[in-house]
Structures are given as C-alpha cells and as structure tokens.
Amino acid sequence: MEKELNEQDSLRLITEMITQARSNFQKGRGDGIVFWGYTIAIIALANFVLLQIFGYQPAIYWVWALTIPIFIIHYMIELKRGKKALVKNGINEIIGHVWFAYAISSAVFVTSIFIIGTWDSVVFLLINPALIGMSGLCIYVTGRVCRFKPFVYGAYVFWCGALISAIILVVCHAIDFQFLILALCMIIGFVTPGHILNRKVDQDV
Asked: How many domains does the chain have?
C-alpha cells in the first residue's frame, strides 16, 4: 500500500518538481533564445540599411518574410528535440505555448495592418512599437515563471524601446530608426540574457 504524503512531503515534492522543471528549461532554451535574438537583430539591421539605400518602398519590408521559413525550420527542430527529451514538464510547455501564441499573434497583427492600410499609412508606424512591447510581455512572463532575473530586466529594455520608438516617430517622423532600436533591444534584452543563461547552465553542470 502506498504511503500517503503529509503536507510537508507534498510541499517538498512540488518544490522539487518546479526546481527540476526550471533546470530543464534552462538547459533547453538558451540556444534558441540566442538564435532568435541574433536572427531578428540581423533582419532589423538589414531593413534599416535597405531603407537608407532605397528609401521607403513596400518591397523592402518583405525582408521580414525570411522569418517564416526560419520559424518553420526552427519549430520542426525544436519539436524533434522535444520528442527526444527524457523529462517533459509543465513549465517548458507553458513557456513554449506563450511564445508560439506570440508568433501567431504577431503574424495576425502585421497581416491585419497590411490589409487595412497602405504601405505608407500611419498604421504602419505602430508595428514596431507594438511588437517590441508584446515581446517585452513574453520575456517578462518567461523571466518570472523561471525566476531568471536577466529576462525580467530584458523585458524592461523592450518596454523602454517601445516608448523610445514612439517618441522618435513623433520627433523625427521617420520609421527607419525603429529598426535600430529593435536590433538593440534584441541584443541587450534577449541575446544577452540568453548568453547568461547558457553560461549559468555550463557552470551548474
């Protein structure tokens, strides 16, 4: 007959499960975070350079279509990696669902903007501040759930970046500098915490 757990044993078991889940998250997410951080930063910088060379033309923004095949390939790789994982936990799944929902919501948001406005419409000026702010939300949730403060600080970087993007629009009436801000946010608020996470995992091994 199985022994019933008392209150202290139950709390200890739950704590151990959460600790193990956070450890598993740390071991599996750092590389993906760094990869996407650099990917988005590079595309943002490419968009900025193209704007400087060719000016404001609709075709320039199609550079972001590169994220679609990259996302599909990366998602399939992560899916295969997840199937091979020996330990699966709720925290990994929650964070994965949060970021998947963010990717779909971002795609729907951008598509909706393209449907309701022309390429030079004022609604396009809202894309970068909105997406940067939404990214901050996901990063904050990730940091809090995993109790990893660099992500929490990274979220504040993104939120500040969203506000700065809006201010620059009002002052300079230009969209190109938004992509520089996005690239900086990705490097400071996303890539850097990802490297810190990887280094922490290596030290704990």
From this structure: 1
